[in-house]
Amino acid sequence: MLGRDFTLTILFISDILSQKDVSGHARLWHYTGAMNSSRLLATITEERISNPSDAPVRTNAENVMNQILSCSCSYDGKRFVTGGVDCHLRVYDMKSRRRLWMCSSSFTKEKMDGHVMRICAVKYHPRGAVYEDYVHIFITGGWDDTIQIWDDRYLHSLW
C-alpha cells in the first residue's frame, strides 16, 4: 500500500516531525535536518470507526483504515489531534505516543456536538502558544458544513 499513500500534513514541534496520511497512519520522526540521522520514532495506526449514518463498508480486509485528512499539534507540544473520514477526532500524547481519547459527536438529533461527516480541517487555537487557558482549545471544519470548537479534554464539542 506504500505506493498509494500520500502525505497530507507535516507538522514540526521542536525536533519532532509529525506526518499524517490517508493510509490511516500517523508517524512521528526525530528530525535533525540531516536525512541520514533522522529516525522514525513511532507509527500510530487508526482504524475506521463506523457511524450510525454510514453505509455498510464492503471490503476483503479485516480492518478498514481511517483516512486522516488533517491534524494539528498543541502549542505546548504535548498533544496532537487527527481528524478524517470517520468523523472521530483522536487526541494523542506526544511523549508516550499513545492515544489519550477520542472526541466525536453523540449522533443525536437533539444537539449538534460534533461532526457527522468527514473532518477536513483541524487547528489548535494560536493563543495556546501564550495563554494557558487556550492550550487545549482547537477548532475543526467538516463536510457537514459545520465548524466545531473543542477542548481536547472533553469527548464532545463545546460549541
Strand content: 35-45%
Taken in chain order, the helices and strands follow as EEEEEEEEEEE
Task: Name the helicity range.
Answer: under 10%
CATH topology: Methylamine Dehydrogenase, Chain H
Structural class from helices and strands? mainly beta
Tally the helices: what do you get? 0
Q: What is the arithmetic mean of pLDDT?
A: 78
Unreliable residue runs: none
What top-tier CATH class fits best?
Mainly Beta
| Largest sheet properties | 4 strands, antiparallel
Task: Please give the domain count.
Answer: 1
* C-alpha geometry: globular
Query: What name goes with the CATH superfamily?
Result: YVTN repeat-like/Quinoprotein amine dehydrogenase
Distance between the termini: 38 Å
Task: Indicate the radius of gyration in whole angstroms.
Answer: 16 Å
The CATH architecture name reads: 7 Propeller
Count all strands and give the number: 11
Write out the strand line-up for the largest beta sheet, numbering strands in chain order.
Answer: 1-2-3-4
